Automatic annotation (TrEMBL):
Reactions listed under catalytic activity: UDP-alpha-D-glucose + 2 NAD(+) + H2O = UDP-alpha-D-glucuronate + 2 NADH + 3 H(+)
Gene Ontology biological process: polysaccharide biosynthetic process; UDP-glucuronate biosynthetic process
Record-linked InterPro entries: 6-PGluconate_DH-like_C_sf, NAD(P)-bd_dom_sf, UDP-Glc/GDP-Man, UDP-Glc/GDP-Man_DH_C, UDP-Glc/GDP-Man_DH_C_sf, UDP-Glc/GDP-Man_DH_dimer, UDP-Glc/GDP-Man_DH_N, UDPglc_DH_bac
PANTHER family: UDP-GLUCOSE 6-DEHYDROGENASE TUAD
The enzyme's E.C. designation: 1.1.1.22
Enzyme class: oxidoreductase
Name used for this protein in its record: UDP-glucose 6-dehydrogenase
Alphabetized SMART domains for the sequence: UDPG_MGDP_dh_C
A GO molecular-function descriptor: UDP-glucose 6-dehydrogenase activity
Family to which the UniProt record says this protein belongs: Belongs to the UDP-glucose/GDP-mannose dehydrogenase family.
Taxonomy of the source species: Bacteria, Bacillati, Actinomycetota, Acidimicrobiia, Acidimicrobiales
Length: 417
């Protein structure tokens, strides 16, 4: 149920493992275009997998949940759980899907929560299904956008949360052929694992960005500092890249939701609130850096922004740090010209340029806010020529700063200058 990036990736990957998969969605146009093999998202390897599975007749698309659920042994719920008004997750899509499939499910079917849901949602689904002869299991996803297919097929672990050992074993059977440890636990623990994993990773990044701020003050280089701490196996080299703040469809929503879960449980998770505050501060800090490069004020200045998506190799703009920062630049009076290799429709407040050079035309500052690899290999003499003043804020420490300084650019990075 649900053909967003989680549902579509899950469906196509299970089909590639040899299972028969029917993907359902409530959006008629989406279903029709998926039937034609058109993939609505940029996701490495997904196109090929969907085409191959459609051709092998192991993957099909239908409108409405009930049609897909009638014959199913397993039903994966992969529908959105957006943030509700009070910061908690809105379960209305999950409940609606469960209520729709409840009456048509085969006895002994297993309904699986793949969407990120608050602890206790397994019970909510059980209630909405209105059936006591089917099992509800939690099997959270840990997919990164851009590498969702390889994350699914080569995960670090598979987590299954179930009250019924038999149902857990049946779900584990779906993953035969996947080289990863499978962990079976209770539903509440599985649901908590998902939130704790995302909040821990967000904490790591806020920590890195806070250390970057200190590096700037003491004249250290955050890249070297992170390399140095990452050699400690207990810390590890991954997920230590400083940036303009973290974003995307999961981290902000899940970190806020865990803070909210803690509050409801009577625990003041004050440092998780700090993790969120550091991230907001990071957006402000980057906007300040851009203003400084522009000479102090942004009033009447033009800022070129390379990178609008929340990270490279995705076309997703949800909770993108780049858009957060652009909002702040505009509040301070700047005109923003953006370019992103994966974005064709201009987000509000941004004029979209046809290519990276055109974005720099007459710009007072160039801000690189997403780490698209291709930005590294552009002709910076051409960029220099196009800009009104050659100043670069490298929000991902992506570019060759010595080469840029040699070419006459004023350069500022994150945690290094
Ligand atoms: C994340 C989790 O990684 C995944 O396990 C979960 O299921 C969904 O949420 P995703 O949202 O695709 O995946 O993005 P991820 O690659 O984790 O990056 C999140 C944010 O952190 C991005 O804004 C990214 O630019 C930023 N980031 C990541 C950094 O700033 N530095 C890093 O070293 C890594």
């Amino acid at each position: 149920m649900g053909t967003g990036y989680v549902g579509l990736t899950t469906g196509a990957c299970f089909a590639s493992l040899g299972h028969n998969v029917i993907c359902a969605d409530i959006d008629e146009q989406k279903v029709e275009s998926l039937r034609r093999g058109e993939i609505p998202i940029l996701e490495d390897g997904l196109d090929r997998l969907v085409h191959e599975s459609i051709t092998a007749e192991r993957l099909s698309f239908v409108l409405g949940a009930a049609t897909a659920a009638e014959q199913a042994e397993f039903v994966y719920l992969c529908v959105p759980t957006p943030q509700g008004e009070d910061g908690s997750a809105d379960l209305s899509y999950i409940e609606a899907a469960a209520a729709e499939i409840g009456p048509v499910l085969q006895p002994d079917a297993v309904v699986i929560n793949k969407s990120t849901v608050p602890v206790g949602s397994t019970r909510v689904v059980e209630r909405a299904l209105g059936r006591s002869d089917v099992h509800v299991v939690s099997n959270p996803e840990f997919l990164r956008e851009g590498s969702a297919v390889s994350d699914f097929l080569k995960p670090d672990r598979v987590v299954i949360g179930a009250d019924s050992q038999a149902a857990a074993i049946r779900v584990a059977g779906l993953y035969v052929g996947i080289p990863a440890p499978i962990m079976v636990t209770d539903p509440a623990s599985a649901e908590t694992i998902k939130y704790a994993a995302n909040a821990f990773l967000a904490t790591k990044l806020s920590f890195v960005n806070a250390v970057a701020a200190i590096c700037e003050a003491v004249g250290a280089d955050v890249n070297d500092v992170m390399l140095g701490i990452g050699y400690d196996k207990r810390i590890g080299q991954e997920f230590l890249q400083p940036g303009p703040g973290w974003g995307g469809s999961c981290f902000p929503k899940d970190t806020r939701a865990l803070a909210r879960i803690a509050e409801d449980a009577g625990y003041d998770f004050f440092f998780l609130k700090g993790v969120l505050d550091v991230n907001e501060e990071q957006f402000d800090r980057v906007a300040d850096k851009i203003a400084r490069l522009a000479g102090g004020s942004l009033e009447g200045k033009t800022v070129a922004v390379w990178g609008l998506t929340f990270k490279a190799r995705t076309d997703d703009l949800r909770e993108s740090p780049s858009l957060e920062i652009i909002g702040r630049l505009r509040e301070r009076g700047a005109r923003v010209i953006g370019y992103d290799p994966a974005v064709e429709v201009a987000p509000a407040g941004v004029e979209l340029a046809g290519d990276a050079y055109a974005a720099c035309d007459g710009a007072d500052v160039l801000a690189v806010l997403t780490e698209w690899d291709e930005f590294k290999w552009l002709d910076f003499d051409k960029v220099h020529e196009a800009m009104a003043s050659p100043c670069i804020l490298d929000g991902r420490n992506l570019l060759d700063r010595s080469a840029l300084k040699r070419r006459g650019f004023t350069y500022d990075g994150i945690g290094r200058s």
